[in-house]
Amino acid sequence: MPLSVVPTPVGNLEDMTLRGLRVLREADVIVCEDTRRTLKLLNHFGIRKPMISCHRHNERARIDGLLSRLESGENVALVSDAGTPGISDPGCEVIRAAIDRGLPVDVLPGPNALLPALLLSGMAGGRFFFAGFIDGGDSERREVLESLSKIQAALVFYVAPHGLSGQLDLFSSVLGDRDAALAREISKVHQEVIRGALPDIARISRERDIRGELVLVVAGGGKRETRSLDETRGWLVLAERMHDLGIFDKEIANMLSESYGIPRNTIKEALLKFKIGTGGSG
Is 145 among the domain residues? Predict the structure, then answer.
């Protein structure tokens, strides 16, 4: 049986798909980020199934047991607290491990915060780059943002409400006076989108107590110019981050080559070094 990756509502429970409900009802076990959160969802739909927690602190330790269940023929459904597992949520390592073991994986389409926020921003006309959460201190975040600043595509970030104004000030100082949209509480009662120039949104965040799940969409950079590799070494930081997010090498090479004017083979060689350095097999 496949590992079934099941998206769950980010807000309104009516967003749960009929197929997702069927898969959960047919599962032998449901692997979830927080059993308490998932239990509320299951209770709402009258589903009673055994659950196993799988979060960022224990995901690797769970992998062998979950793969053994799959190999024995059990139906294993993977969910997170909200949205699609593995997208800035636990689950990516379990999915990779199942694929590496040659086990079937099925990913259901369904709720997420990324696409609604992108569409609500009005910047969904072409390519976009999903950066997720940017972790680390200010210097590390600045380095990542500088590497993203040249991309000619809308940038989509998940941002935490804690210390929001400081985060947005940093975004503004690196990315400049770009159009942006801050979407909060997607698919919930208090859904809201704040649109405007990035510095203006940063100012609003200082004046208001903005809470909830937040997605920030920022307009892409200007026209690409061909630069030397020494001038564009920031692309290495971005390539490594995209690799860590599980994006396929071909997609990374195409996007960075387009944005930075770097030969695709040069990018692929760098990706190979990342894999050797981390012991990756993908």
Answer: yes
